From TrEMBL:
The keyword Nucleotide-binding does not apply. This is BatD family protein. It comes from the Bacteria. Residues 1-20 form the signal peptide. InterPro entries: BatD. The chain crosses the membrane at residues 443-462. It holds the Pfam family BatD. Keywords: Membrane, Signal, Transmembrane, Transmembrane helix.
């Protein structure tokens, strides 16, 4: 009995080992055909490979192909992958013909198919093939990925345009996407195509119609050889058959055909290390840099806005702006980022800026020092640095250190003295001597002597309170949540009881928080995109769900009434969610 169990276990392990091995084989649609028929051969593998080399197909004429199909699916947590190269062959002579070995390189190992023998007979009266419609569809339908630049620099924009070419001999009724490229090593953005247009063009020298299905802008985030995954479509193709209707018109047969754009590779060049400025943060393109102030003359406790702006074309969303500094007498707040960026086939264009709110506290003239911005110019292929002008802030009115002394010194001048000027001064006084009292032993003496002794236990008590406050993690988080709530939810709190005003302010506060924290325009993003962004940043699923539910509550409030209690619950929930997000995003 034990021997039987051992044998069964051995065979199961052997079967699993065989299944996990690389499989590369050749399959033919038939092993016997007439000389006036066609044959389809598929070279199929279960792992992705490179350097595919078909056989010579001696004794056959290649009338179609190669056509490439890719299938990648997950079922019950198990991945199934298949890649197929298909050819359609017309035999040249009768007899037994041998299709030789094809080769593929997978993970550095070369695999070969087994030779396939096919018997070719005399011509048949009615060629049956069974795959004639499929052959016609494959010969006249092609999905192509056109890449603008296969050797870009790091963070240089490239364009991928997917075109579906259709021969005039067939027609396409509809299609659907089977597998979308992931672009895992790129920053990517699809360009909206409002309406598909059929245009005339050429494919391999023959007239074709084509339609642009997708346009994508990619910014490579890694150097070296990168893969652009294929786009796969399932296309319903109407193929003319040999049959005709009673009016003599040809009857069309619909064939479901899978086409793929093929796996494309690009080689990304690193940015030069020579001449790279110390303040370079990854900007690549053609930019203008400017620092400006909303006003340069104001009074103390008034505010001004200093703007650090970069505009032009390039990877605008993928680098940091220079940090503005100011003297200590100017109170400067955290900047708010603004993005005015549009994306087309030339990449990102527009401007990004950070707005600093500055409030002076004293009278005087204060310089905002010059800052520099460096970027890599793709046209000249070298680094460029732009320096801003120094901004002088003139605070005209307000308290000033030593103002009295400076005014007195500035106003000193010679004066003419006259005896008449001092006639009001009394020469005889009635002053009385003060009663002398010794300082030693007075109440001032004992007060000053005892104050340090009383200050010691007071300092110890305050130190312990400070340590307890520092150890109080929950309390510290609660206080931080309160500060965040006051910062982002103050307007919503003011509108408690006013349903429209409250939920508009709440929605704006949630978007402003993510905008300030992640430096992205979330108000222009869908909830699904916000969900993906937060999950990518490491936020747990429950917190993301609470955040999305708050946004949905703001949307539903436009159509359904809400009580004050409900608004208070949503406000408390917003405080809790912002606190949790800040903790997780701040890691």
């Amino acid at each position: 009995m034990k021997l039987k169990l051992i044998l069964i276990s051995f065979f199961l392990c052997a079967a699993n080992l065989v299944q996990s091995q690389v499989r590369f084989e050749a399959k033919v649609s038939k092993d016997k055909l007439g000389i006036n028929e066609r044959l389809r051969i598929d070279f199929e593998m279960n792992e992705d490979g490179d350097n595919f080399r078909p056989p010579s197909f001696e004794g056959f004429t290649v009338v179609g192909g190669p056509n490439q199909a890719v299938s990648n699916s997950w079922i019950n947590g198990k991945r199934t992958y298949s890649k197929t190269y298909s050819y359609f062959l017309q035999p040249e002579e009768r007899g037994t013909q041998t299709i030789g070995q094809a080769e593929i390189t997978i993970d550095g190992t070369v695999y070969k198919t087994s030779p396939v023998d096919v018997q070719v007979t005399a011509a048949v009266d009615r060629p049956t093939g069974g795959n004639d419609s499929d052959i016609v569809a494959s010969e006249n339908l092609h999905l192509v990925a056109e890449i603008s630049n296969t050797n870009p620099y790091l963070n240089e924009a490239i364009t991928v345009v997917y075109k579906l070419y259709v021969s005039p001999r067939i027609s396409v009724s509809n299609w659907r996407e089977l597998d979308n490229p992931k672009y895992s090593d790129f920053w990517s953005q699809n360009i909206d195509i409002k309406q598909l247009r059929v245009e005339n063009g050429e494919y391999e020298g023959e007239p074709y119609r084509y339609v642009v299905l997708r346009k994508t802008i990619l910014y490579p985030q890694k150097t070296g050889e990168l893969d652009i995954e294929p786009l796969a479509l399932s296309v319903a193709v109407d193929v003319p058959s040999e049959r005709r209707d009673i009016f003599g018109s040809r009857i069309y047969k619909t064939v479901n055909k899978t086409v793929a754009a093929g796996n494309r590779k690009i080689r990304v060049k690193p940015l030069p290390a020579t001449g790279r400025p110390a303040d370079f943060t990854g900007a690549v393109g053609d930019f203008e840099f400017n620092v400006k102030a909303s006003k340069t003359e104001l009074e103390a406790n008034e505010s001004l806005t200093a703007t650090v702006e970069v505009k032009g074309s390039g990877n605008l969303k993928l680098f940091d702006l220079p940090v503005l500094t100011a003297p200590s007498s100017l109170e400067m707040y955290e900047p708010e980022r603004e993005e005015n960026v549009r994306t087309n086939l030339n990449g990102m264009q527009g401007s990004i800026s950070e707005n600093y709110t500055i409030v002076p506290s004293r009278k005087g003239k204060y310089p905002i020092p010059s800052v520099s911005f460096s970027y890599f110019d793709l046209e000249d292929e070298k680094y460029k640095t732009v320096n801003s002008e120094e901004i002088l802030i003139d605070v005209e009115q307000g308290p000033s250190m030593g103002a009295g002394q400076r005014d007195l010194a500035a106003s000193k001048k010679g004066v003419d003295l006259s005896a008449e000027q001092f006639r009001y001064i009394k020469l005889n006084t009635n002053l009385k001597p003060l009663q002398q009292q010794a300082f030693l032993g007075s109440w001032e003496f004992w007060t000053l002597l005892g104050f340090p002794l009383l200050a010691i236990p007071l300092a110890i008590l305050l130190g312990r309170k400070r340590e307890e406050r520092a150890r109080d993690v929950v309390g510290r988080r609660s206080r931080k949540a309160d500060r965040l709530a006051r910062k982002y939810l103050s307007e919503a709190r003011k509108n408690l009881g006013d349903q429209t005003g409250f939920y508009e302010a709440l929605e704006r506060a949630m978007h402003n928080y993510l905008k300030a924290k992640l430096h992205i325009q979330t108000s222009e993003m869908s909830k699904e995109r916000i969900r993906e962004t937060l999950i990518d940043k490491g936020v747990d699923q429950s917190t993301v769900s609470e955040f999305i539910s708050l946004l949905e509550s703001c949307e539903f409030a436009r159509y359904t009434p809400a009580s004050t209690a409900t608004m208070q619950q949503d406000y408390d929930k917003a405080v809790r969610v912002i606190s949790t997000l800040d903790k997780q995003l701040g890691k």
